[in-house]
Design goal:
The complex is a heterodimer of chains A (207) and B (65). Chain A has 207 residues and is mainly alpha-helical. In chain A, 63% of the residues lie in helices and 2% in strands. Chain A has helices at 13-38, 41-57, 68-85, 114-123, 126-137, 142-149, 153-173, 182-199, and strands at 101-103, 112-113. A two-stranded antiparallel sheet of chain A has the order 1-2. Chain A is elongated, with a radius of gyration of 18 Å. Chain A starts with 12 loop residues before the first helix and ends in an 8-residue tail after the last helix. With 65 residues, chain B is mainly α. Chain B has 2 helices and no strands. The chains are: A mainly alpha (207), B mainly alpha (65). Chains A and B meet through helix 1, helix 2, helix 4, helix 5 and helix 6 of A and helix 1 and helix 2 of B.
Chain lengths: 207, 65
């Protein structure tokens, strides 16, 4: 992302201090979004650090009073897609996700664990995964998620719907990639869709 | 930052075979997200934020690390 010099740079010290405070407040959310996107905690934190530096550099473009979380998510998302294109992330799983039992569907021998959901999530195409993360985990409205992804509201609804259907199918049928063997599946799925996401809509370059 | 799963206006349209309401695992997504939000922030972030003031804005620091 190219960061152009601010026009005027007329921010007061109080505004800068507000910006920093708001930026600090969204760091935990950026970490959560990044980890959902790229899986591995260390890479996710690298991504967040990169995002913070870019957000700081571009602070004159932030409109006070608007959502800092939404604004920084756009920056994080663009940084993620750029890094994906450089093949930095390989859809690796977070081995640290708790083996917490999430739900025990009737008529199924094995309960679903949180780690199952996490692995299943990481097999989703990037565009659907991010849509589901924004709406289903981050609590953004469809409209807000569409603004973050730079696409139509209907597109987000469709992506969320497809992501939910895919996860439901995977979890119901136990068709969840295993840690040892799943990386290939997940990585391929992510990369196949990446070209679509990166080449087409959604990758807005506005910071 | 309100949690508004499913109530962003018109709740999930029932197309694409998508359920109208979030499936039973949906709470797990929030758990995954919230568990990271609630983690203690690593010192590396505090250090970075402390250093921001010394970094002039609009100076794109792209050291391509």
């Amino acid at each position: 992302m190219s960061v152009e010099p601010a026009s005027g740079g007329a921010r007061t010290a109080a505004e800068k201090s507000d910006f920093k405070r708001e930026l600090t407040a969204v760091v935990p959310h950026l970490r959560a979004f990044a980890r959902g996107l790229c899986g591995r905690p260390d890479l996710a934190d690298d991504l967040v650090q990169e995002t913070l530096l870019k957000a700081w550099a571009a602070q004159d473009r932030f409109e006070p009073g608007t959502s800092m979380r939404a604004w920084t998510f756009v920056i994080l998302r663009n940084a993620y897609l750029t890094d994906m294109r450089r093949n930095r992330f390989r859809g690796e799983y977070d081995e640290g996700v708790a083996e917490r039992i999430l739900t025990a569907p009737a008529g199924q021998e094995e309960p679903i664990h949180l780690s199952d959901l996490h692995r299943a999530l990481l097999t989703l195409p990037a565009e659907r995964r991010e849509a589901l993360l924004l709406v289903g985990a981050g609590g953004f409205s469809y409209e807000e998620a569409a603004a973050i992804c730079g696409c139509a509201v209907g597109t987000i609804k469709s992506r969320v719907g497809r992501a939910r259907a895919a996860l439901t199918e995977m979890l119901a049928n136990g068709n969840i990639p295993q840690r040892s063997t799943g990386d290939d599946i997940a990585h391929r799925a992510i990369l196949e869709e990446l070209d679509i996401v990166a080449g087409g809509n959604g990758v807005s370059s506005r910071g | 930052m309100a949690s508004m799963d499913g109530q962003g206006g018109k709740a999930g349209e029932g197309k694409d075979g998508a359920p109208r309401r979030p499936p039973e695992w949906a709470d797990g997504l929030k758990q995954l997200y919230d568990s990271v939000v609630e983690e203690a922030l690593p010192d590396s972030f505090k250090d970075l934020i402390d250093r921001l003031d010394a970094t002039p804005p609009a100076r794109g620091r792209d050291n391509g690390k």
